[in-house]
Amino acid sequence: MKKKKNDIGTFFTAPIVISLVIIALIVLMSIFAPIIGPYDPDQMDMLNALQGPSLAHLFGTDQVGRDIFTRLMYGARTTLLSALLVVVISIIIGIPLGVISGYYGGKIDSVIMRAEDVLLAFPALLLAFLFVASFGKGIANAIIALGIVYVPMLSRLTRSLTLMEKNKTYVESARSIGFSDTRIIFRHILPNCIPTIIAQLTLDIGYAILDLAAMSFLGLGVQPPTSDWGAMLEEGRQYIQSNPALVFAPGLAIIITVVTFNVLSDNIQMYLDPTQRKLPPFKKLKKMAGGLVEE
C-alpha cells in the first residue's frame, strides 16, 4: 500500500495538477455556459456593438453586439467536443490497424504501412483542407477529415509498441497455453500499450484544437453563427485595432488550452519513462539512503 501511495504522489506533480485543474475549469465553463453566461450567444444587439470590456460585458461585445465572454464559453463546447471526436475517429481506425500491423507483420504490415505513407507524404493540415474541399464545408466534415489525417500517427505508435510487446515472454506463454491471437492482442498486448497511447492522445487533443481553429478561421469548419474559437478569430480580425478583445479573447483561450494539453502530455510521458524523471535533491537522496540503511 505504501508503494502505491508513493506512485500516486509521484504522478500528481504540480504541472499535472495545474493542467488538470485548468482543463476541468474549461470543461465546467462549457457545460454550465447557459447558467454562467447571462446572454444568448447568437442574439444580435447592434446598439451595443463593439463595446469594450465592462461589468456588463467582461470581454466586451463583437461587431453585432454579441457578448464575447458568453460566446467563448459556448465556443469551448464546440471546440473541445470537435477535438475529442477527431481523436475518437483516430482511435477507432488507428489503434486496430497498428496492433494488427505490428502483431502479424508480413504483407498485412506492408499494405497498411504503404497506405499510411501516402497520407504522411502530405502536410497534415493541407491534406485535411483537401478532404474538406472534397466533402464540403462544415464542422462534421472537418472532424472526419482531421480524424483520417491523425490515423497514421497513432497507428504507427501502436505498431511500434506492439512490436516490442509481442516478443516478450508473457506473449509466448499465452501462445503455448493455446490462447487465440484475438485474446493475446486485446487482452494482453494492447493493455500494456495503453499508458503510452494515452500520453499521445492527450497531445493529439491539443493539436486537434489548433487544427480545427485553423480550419474554422479559413471558413472550412464551423459556419456562422455557431460559436467557435477559430471562427471568432476570423470574425474579429478586421476590428483588431478598434477592439482588440475580439481577437485577444479567443486567441488566448486557444493558447491556454493547447499549452495545457501539451504540458499534461509531456508530464505523463515523463512519468511513464523513468529515464526522463527528475532526480530528487542530493539531501533528500541522502535521507532516503539513511532510512534504507536503518531498515
From TrEMBL:
One cellular component term (GO) for this entry is: plasma membrane
MF terms in GO: dipeptide transmembrane transporter activity
Q: How does it sit in the membrane?
A: Multi-pass membrane protein
Stretches assigned to the ABC transmembrane type-1 domain: 76-265
Presence of the UniProt keyword Transport in the record: yes
Q: Give me the segments passing through the membrane.
A: 12-36, 80-106, 118-136, 142-158, 245-264
PROSITE patterns noted in UniProt: ABC_TM1
Q: Where in the cell is it found?
A: Cell membrane
A Pfam entry, by short name: BPD_transp_1
What keywords are assigned to this protein? Answer: Cell membrane, Membrane, Transmembrane, Transmembrane helix, Transport
Chief place of localization:
membrane
Annotated signal sequence is none
Family label: Belongs to the binding-protein-dependent transport system permease family.
Primary role: Part of the ABC transporter complex GsiABCD involved in glutathione import. Probably responsible for the translocation of the substrate across the membrane.
Q: What is this protein called?
A: Glutathione transport system permease protein GsiD
Its taxonomic placement starts with: Bacteria, Bacillati, Bacillota, Clostridia, Lachnospirales
